Amino acid sequence: MRSAREALTASRRAPLLSALGIVTIAFSLFAFGLFGLVAINIRQALDQVEERVEIRAFLSDSTDIESVAAAMKDISGFPEVLRVDYVSEEKALERARKEMGEFADVFESGVLPASIEVHLRPGMRDPASVKAVADRMKTYSFIDDVRYGEEWVEKLYRLRTISTVAGIALGVAFAAVAIIIIGATIRMTVLARAKEISIMRLVGATDMFIRLPFLIDGLVKGVLGGLLALVFVWVANRVVNEYFIQTIFFDRQLIFLGVVGGAVMGVLGSLFSVGRHLRRI
Amino acid sequence: MIRLTEVAKEYPRSGVALTQVSFEVRKGEFVYLTGPSGSGKTTILRLLYMDDKPTKGEVWVNGVSSNTASGREISRLRRRLGIVFQDFRLLEDRSAEANVRFALEVTGAPKATIRAKVARVLTQVGLSSKATNFPRELSGGEQQRVAIARALINDPFVLIADEPTGNLDERATRSVFQLLRDINASGTAVIMATHDLDLVRRSNYRTIELNHGRVVFDSAESPASARPFEEPFEVRDTPSESTERF
Fold first, then answer.
1. Is B150 close to A203, i.e. CB distance below 8 A?
2. Which of A280, A276, A279 minimizes the C-alpha distance to A186?
């Protein structure tokens, strides 16, 4: 209680320094937040493209429906498989006419064979898994051909790997910059009160007693900076949505994590700055 | 009450600060620590309030050993010490009263007792009429009195003063020194590091002289005439050579 009061009093004594601290934390978290927003949007776009990864097995003309049903049941049991659909000759024709409207007249009944379409579970859409399922499907005698766009799947997978690695590297870099800036900001507060800290130690205040107001100060600044950063990111997202492209925003869980992250950074920054200072006196 | 046994202190950069320092201070004693700059006076005081630990030997203060004291024990010990510096170390943005009160507040003293205690020590140092003044509105001597009041607020068993009159004029020096004598007369031990030989000569208190980190004279162990302080301190490279005066 006393520590909270002390933290509040210190902020009131140096309002400009406190405001500057919160804004600095907000801007460093804003940069991190913007990066996060770009990362989740790229990821979502890739997820959407990846959903289109499918394996299509073309069936022989004379295949009886019972054999197809039995094979579909088998394939549904594969651990990688999410869903199996049967596409009859008529449906294939209808789809082809719809998808390639300008060639609608070219397609005639009986031109396109019936097929089985297999959709894979998320996380099982990498080239190796796709090929493994395709190879297993080829073992059925009534399946003439299996296609899954091998090259396209490999390119997509490479793109996802690059974006994941770049995301982690940039994320770590942004987070490190944010932590350093927050640490420096809180250190300014600590330095401004260096004399007070040295007197507190001399008259017998415990280290925890000295630290606590700074930790509370760091926590409050971290949370306020985090909330302010969230507002900045939200405004930036609205502008992009309004004038450029449709994007998604953080869900509640990520917003909560962001603010908690700000608080943790504030506390860690304080702990580090005050600790260093206590050792030095 | 205070005992230093074969204490040595060495710093990685500046080298040896103290060598084989041993002495005791009894309850209620007044002790001067004298010697030239860099002779180790401040180092000894820092070891007494356990701001630093000896490299060798042991410092005992009120039952707390420098070799085994935990952070919490050191904090508790400091609440029973009064520490005063040459530069006063007052918080400029607070009144005299708030500066004194600060020492009680940050050590978790019961709120109800604070006001009365602060008023008592400010009266003791003769500053009750200037309780609301800020340090910048006070003279050097008055600022040192506020610092002494802050040091006295927890009823210390010893007052440790590092050159408390170093920044003061003659008149202020006399009045601060008289205050320290009064404090000592009421039973609190005083250990005072000073350069001021006139001050040392004028009173008959125990004197420990340091040079190059060693105790070169202790009036408690030698006859009073052995070190009459007629000459200024000398900075010696070896005990037999005298090279520099200050």
1. yes
2. A276
Query: What pLDDT, in 10s, does the model give residues A216-250?
Result: 888 898 899 999 999 999 999 999 999 988 888 99
What residues in chain A have per-residue pLDDT under 70? 1-3, 6-7, 10-11, 103-110, 277, 279-281
The two tokens of residue A185 are 């900001």
Contacts of A209 in chain B (CB under 8 A): 106-108
How many residues are present in chain A? 281
Note the pLDDT of residue B165. 92
**Are A195 and B49 a contacting pair at CB < 8 A?**
no
Nearest CA in chain B to A199: B89
- What are the phi and psi torsion angles at A175 (to 5°)? -65, -40
| B154 interfacial to chain A (CB closer than 8 Å) | yes
Contact of A46 with A159, CB cutoff 8 Å? yes
Residue whose C-alpha is closest to residue A197's, from A183, A217, A181: A217
Please answer whether residues B49 and B160 qualify as being in contact, where contact means their C-beta atoms are separated by less than 8 angstroms.
yes
Contacts of A198 in chain B (CB under 8 A): 89
**Cα–Cα distance measured from residue A72 to residue A60, given in angstroms and rounded to the nearest whole number:** 15
The minimum CA-CA distance between B122 and chain A, rounded to whole Å, is 17
Torsion of CA B87, B117, A194, B14, to 10 degrees: 50
Q: Which of B75, B81, B89 sits opposite A206 (nearest CB)?
A: B75
